[in-house]
Amino acid sequence: MTSKRNFEPVSGNDLPRFAGIPSFMRLPVMSLDDSDIDQVQIGLIGVPWDGGTTNRPGARHGPRQLRDLSTMIRLKHPISHIEPFSLVNCADLGDVSVNPADVQDTLSRVTAFYEKLKTCNIIPMTAGGDHLISLPVLRGIVKNGPVGMIHFDAHTDLYKGYFGGFEYTHGTPFRRAIIEGILDPKRVVQIGIRGTMYDGEDIEWGLEQGVRIIRIEELYDRGLDDVMTEARAIVSNQPTYVSFDIDGIDPSQAPGTGTPEIGGFTTLEAQRMVRQLKGLNIIGADLVEVSPPLDQSGNTAWVGVSIIFELLCILADVIQGQKQP
Amino acid sequence: MTSKRNFEPVSGNDLPRFAGIPSFMRLPVMSLDDSDIDQVQIGLIGVPWDGGTTNRPGARHGPRQLRDLSTMIRLKHPISHIEPFSLVNCADLGDVSVNPADVQDTLSRVTAFYEKLKTCNIIPMTAGGDHLISLPVLRGIVKNGPVGMIHFDAHTDLYKGYFGGFEYTHGTPFRRAIIEGILDPKRVVQIGIRGTMYDGEDIEWGLEQGVRIIRIEELYDRGLDDVMTEARAIVSNQPTYVSFDIDGIDPSQAPGTGTPEIGGFTTLEAQRMVRQLKGLNIIGADLVEVSPPLDQSGNTAWVGVSIIFELLCILADVIQGQKQP
Amino acid sequence: MTSKRNFEPVSGNDLPRFAGIPSFMRLPVMSLDDSDIDQVQIGLIGVPWDGGTTNRPGARHGPRQLRDLSTMIRLKHPISHIEPFSLVNCADLGDVSVNPADVQDTLSRVTAFYEKLKTCNIIPMTAGGDHLISLPVLRGIVKNGPVGMIHFDAHTDLYKGYFGGFEYTHGTPFRRAIIEGILDPKRVVQIGIRGTMYDGEDIEWGLEQGVRIIRIEELYDRGLDDVMTEARAIVSNQPTYVSFDIDGIDPSQAPGTGTPEIGGFTTLEAQRMVRQLKGLNIIGADLVEVSPPLDQSGNTAWVGVSIIFELLCILADVIQGQKQP
Amino acid sequence: MTSKRNFEPVSGNDLPRFAGIPSFMRLPVMSLDDSDIDQVQIGLIGVPWDGGTTNRPGARHGPRQLRDLSTMIRLKHPISHIEPFSLVNCADLGDVSVNPADVQDTLSRVTAFYEKLKTCNIIPMTAGGDHLISLPVLRGIVKNGPVGMIHFDAHTDLYKGYFGGFEYTHGTPFRRAIIEGILDPKRVVQIGIRGTMYDGEDIEWGLEQGVRIIRIEELYDRGLDDVMTEARAIVSNQPTYVSFDIDGIDPSQAPGTGTPEIGGFTTLEAQRMVRQLKGLNIIGADLVEVSPPLDQSGNTAWVGVSIIFELLCILADVIQGQKQP
Amino acid sequence: MTSKRNFEPVSGNDLPRFAGIPSFMRLPVMSLDDSDIDQVQIGLIGVPWDGGTTNRPGARHGPRQLRDLSTMIRLKHPISHIEPFSLVNCADLGDVSVNPADVQDTLSRVTAFYEKLKTCNIIPMTAGGDHLISLPVLRGIVKNGPVGMIHFDAHTDLYKGYFGGFEYTHGTPFRRAIIEGILDPKRVVQIGIRGTMYDGEDIEWGLEQGVRIIRIEELYDRGLDDVMTEARAIVSNQPTYVSFDIDGIDPSQAPGTGTPEIGGFTTLEAQRMVRQLKGLNIIGADLVEVSPPLDQSGNTAWVGVSIIFELLCILADVIQGQKQP
Amino acid sequence: MTSKRNFEPVSGNDLPRFAGIPSFMRLPVMSLDDSDIDQVQIGLIGVPWDGGTTNRPGARHGPRQLRDLSTMIRLKHPISHIEPFSLVNCADLGDVSVNPADVQDTLSRVTAFYEKLKTCNIIPMTAGGDHLISLPVLRGIVKNGPVGMIHFDAHTDLYKGYFGGFEYTHGTPFRRAIIEGILDPKRVVQIGIRGTMYDGEDIEWGLEQGVRIIRIEELYDRGLDDVMTEARAIVSNQPTYVSFDIDGIDPSQAPGTGTPEIGGFTTLEAQRMVRQLKGLNIIGADLVEVSPPLDQSGNTAWVGVSIIFELLCILADVIQGQKQP
Fold first, then answer.
1. Residue E52 contacts F where some CB pair is shorter than 8 Å
2. pLDDT at residue F325 in the model
3. How many domains does the structure of chain D reveal?
4. D-E interface: how many C-beta pairs under 8 angstroms?
5. Number of residue pairs across C and F with CB atoms under 8 Å?
6. CB of B255 within 8 A of CB of D295?
7. D23 inside domain
8. Each residue of A251-287: pLDDT tens digit?
């Protein structure tokens, strides 16, 4: 790879970290039409959308605030010593163009973008946006049968519908994905579930399909290691997506989100769980539901990009591993 | 009217103004199905909607924050000495049920609500919600030919479309209303217009239809009195709607709104302009675009309900005048 | 009970959760004069008062913000599967009318309200207000000899006086209640106590009376289960009140309170402790010291109503159990 | 006066203005028991009280935030070129000890403090606290018959009572003072009055006593100069107090206050009106109702101390004038 | 110019205005090393620096927040109908690399950057940063004798030194520039000056050099038109720089700045004054002292970019005029 | 010591805790020139400096906000029952005069101040300011060979340089101190280290010198007790400094800091670790990096002063122990 150095973040020695136009991780900005696009291995993409939000909106502003805070991220993982930006070519591929006033139009646009990405063989690290965006992302990149998923969240997002049967909201993406055959429910693990319930139908339906739902109490009672060992076993070495809803984390650490539930896991626990994804066959990841108007301080976005960095290290390691026979 | 006292706000002597469940102006809460609904003369209604918002959402939370702050409003107008709640029967009719994820469904629901209101002969004082809601409100209450409008705003809301031709957003309601024949463009006056322009097509189209657009500079150069005299002449004594977008007011005084434009008129000027609507044939009014996530302090909502009180005094006076031969 | 369905919260399918006038949990609003009042089994009441606050005021605004956030609470408990609003008749009984400028007048008003409540056989779930309100609540509902109390808090609230001997503040209610014979100190357990001390006299006095004071360090060293087992044993199956001061929870999770102390328990620990109250003979509960001006985001109130829901499930279960022979 | 230089503020050259313990204007801190107290000519005093507040509390925190922001004030008036700290001896006399839980006790404490001040011949520049504090201040310093007052405010504070007849709140001080014979209503001018009214009884009562009430509309219609000329004529050269409620200023410029009313005068207008008090026989002044929890940014307090500096220049000039024959 | 369309902002129809990586005005990002750099006519540059700040820091974060808010700016001026991005080639040239810990090193870096810019014949529109940055900007672009300046500000920035004689702070740039011979004091006009004074030496020195200082009172007493006519006459048709300190505007409209002074001019007045610069021989402009930590809402930055757009229209018109014989 | 009572904090009974001029812990304010200075045993000092901050500034405002919040601290430690203000003479020695625009000048000023303090035999409890201030503090008080250090932080602060080799920033103090021979690296323990890395050179260098670096994961895996036992062994009974960077604590509990890293230890853990310093030979301590503009609520400062109180109890115990044979 002759041009690797072009994919390195702007150095803090050249320009202080608070300076400059904020791309994800200070990476180069490219478009899918770029002539060098085939060199990109991991694409960081924003989907600035909250049209699926049933309660408090604002996640459409997530990608921009995440980019802003991401400039404080450095180069090397403190535990694994992975340097993702040296290991593989990463680039900021900008935001997908959405239509804030039309759900179906937006779903089509997002799917089309990720289909192109798939064609380019780029692994997506997506920043939401509300959780509905995981559906068109999966539609775009899953083309050869259903995939598994490790899903960190306070909610199952397996609801049937809202507002009189409307089936496309941020509470329904994974029910749709299972029904559409792009998620294999028997290889879906949900971690951190909690909060009061409407009627529990989402959970019943999920359990019937074979989804493994791990409530927050079980997570603490068994311990992270035990739970993650099970999660790894469930998804096994088959293609697996990772979806991280920021509201999985306790709202004291991530208040900027539309549907908080008290009693979540901590950021350190989040980091340690993500680190245990190492070696799995991850085909893409997303970090969703950061809502800047609900936390103008940027603290929630800082948590978000810190998790994105953890995910990037996992993804870079996957790619690196694939190259080595 | 024997039951008039039932329509009086909870007194601050009985319950401090910060206490109690916040209905609009501490008025009784009623529904359109209520057996006493025929006694209501002015209905205060919330339309908690921001699905037409092209940029920064949050106006769906407007009605609740407006209700909260409205409990600080007292009973009597300091200049006109009108006591609207004594003069006519006012009630809080709750929020219209909207579908946050579907524009057309919501437009239908809102129109249906206002058609019922019209049947009950209740004059609506609506709290938004983004500005798109004026369209279904007008659809609901205008049944006998186009009406005039006095419109306070930073923007014309006469745009053609967004995001590739989408015609139902908070920037398009009055173009739609003119095209649908429910607004008579020759009796529409827009006051406070300013801000950078896409291409000016909205203004050109409006001028061609006969809309009178009064920019902020003209307002100051001629003075409020002169402008309002002209405005009154334009709408004359025919049925007229009043639409007040909070972003007409300078963003230093009303920061909690999605599309602020610097250089607006002041709250005192707003009060004085509304007071000059006295005696016109007003058929309803709205106050829109208060976005609580953009001003958690409630200061913008406080401006909003203070203007709503001014409008209520005008509406009460209209009704009172109609009763007297 | 023929009219049970009238006591159900407004459904999110009928009206989005951010919409509508915010009563507690979207329950019907009733007054003690209501003809149906005898059907109510649990009353949710606000006491909007902070006149007993010795440092940072604002708790008078607590009930309104708690109501606002409570509309995000759903219907069913995720662990116990209790559905309190189906199980028993709950209603929002509004705010007690207080006098912000007179302590003794307010104490009388609150006591009078709760005496009426007692007469109606309604179990109160009270939202403060500062902690002084627990005193008049207890005065109102305890009529047959002293009761026990499980008290979650950072402070003992057993102080003697402030500002030269003034004995009615939010730091003194339980000393007053013990002296007045409405609390049995030998059946009082305080959990979460911490923070710097004036001189420790409150603790010494409490210990002399037989109060069981469990500091935060003991809570963690022994574990929640062990501590709660002891607490249950202390109050036994006799009538017991539950008082939950939001400042028992760590200030990172509940910053909106007047007298925070670092190093508190977490929300999940709070939930788990409250869940262990199941089956006790609870006669009422309060959640106090949420101060909205110190957390305009509503995050603290969200914690507060989440705990109120936990308490409601316990109370509903008590009532349900009493009905069954 | 040999020790004048001891009364100079800490210089920004010696210590940056953001550094150091914040006394008012960086002046020396003294107590009434200090041996040098007789050298003090103007005392800056805080009265950290909001027990008279009928709606949103927080003004008890006013003095501290005002001190904090006051360290940005420099030495010399830009128009009059008065250097108050060189001209007369100014000192920070600390906060009066109040009892947050007892109104009458607090009134007594404040009056006692100001009586001592009067004995020391110190002119008070008081920082509130809510507006009730003006009553005990006046009680303390007015000993030889009623005085006049120039009063900047949105409200008359001439109300009869609240909450069932309670007569000591921040809405009643001047009615009490007139009734007690310490204010001469015929020499009282109120400027900036506005906002919705309960019933107007306060205004009627005031007018009957001879109070001159200048609404905001009259202020603008006639112009500042004309109004201030009248105000000066009304108080003439007899002893006059100045009371400045921060809510007289528009809430966009001074949002941190408990009872805002839209449509107020600007800070520049406030400065220009205060400058026109020059040469009057001012016996003391206060600046009240800054409520830090309602504006944590300190912007409102910055407005407050900027007005306090204007008042200090007027007071220093009075003292200077009295010394010169 | 064949490649003009490359310099157009991303359209809101292609990508909603809240989406995408925020460059200034959504313009293309280029560096001085870019091969097309000679096509750029106006460069928008950030100088993320607050090392000259004597009181409250944060202006180093200004450029990023200004870029963020600038994406809400549209294409066409509402009064002059100038479309700057169509008229001339504008680009975002990124941030100058500064050294947050060394003043002199930073001054050198900034000057070097602007010297290159000058070589490329690009007119700079600079976004600060604190006001010290105007000095190295002027050093970089003024090479043929002193220039004039129209300077909007609350402060003269003509101070001699701080903290024991330190001469390079945000209060001293224009004294340094005059002494260095890059500003002609007789062609310097300062508008909006106000606030308390240390000792007035800055003003005396400025007047001695011939600087025209127009205080806020004079601005209002004479009116904007009269003052701007004088200002235009003073700078005449010789090369003139425009420096706009956001603190010239009233702090209610621009609170996010380190040294606010109450009683400033309004945003509309600012717009109208800038519009009167049309036709002058402007060689560059800056907008400084926006401090995001002091206004996380972005409202101040929104004012800032709105003024930058006004300045861009003036600059584009200058360039356009120069091309036409 | 006859005058011990002069060193007691103002009592909350004499003046409510929200009232009065805020000195540290309401202690008397003294200067090093004071005639009673030899009676002071522990000095609380502010160093209002952020000129070494490489990213987000604001720590210069730390001392003032810490003083403000410190007035809520009471007198007695809840576990050890130490009453530091009774045990030894504590005083607020004000802020060191810094030069916000010059690093080296400031380093000299701070060192000079602490050399004087050393001469007076006063043990310093310093409140920052950014972490660079620990360097001049150590330079001032370490005169007899290198000392040990227990260092709580998210970062090692052992970096080599920034911005092209600049060696004096808040990321470099302890490398400088080791190189200068005032810290003995073999007796330095760092606890809580985490966050992404530039390249890990700081850690490698530290390990080579013999610094013991305990990452957050090790802290949790081994438990606090085990780690603190090791830390005590490493510093042994030789002179040891304690440096507490607030960013060691999780950012959800201490958000007001310039370089947060997710996944930190809790406040209760911080308290328990500091309590285990009892009996060590502590020669001084600091608490740094509280940045008020990043947390206007004061919550972070409240955490800071709560830790300062813990440290004061340790320091008072050291002094007390030295007096007793």
1. yes
2. 53
3. 1
4. 78
5. 79
6. no
7. no
8. 999 999 999 999 999 999 999 999 999 999 999 999 9
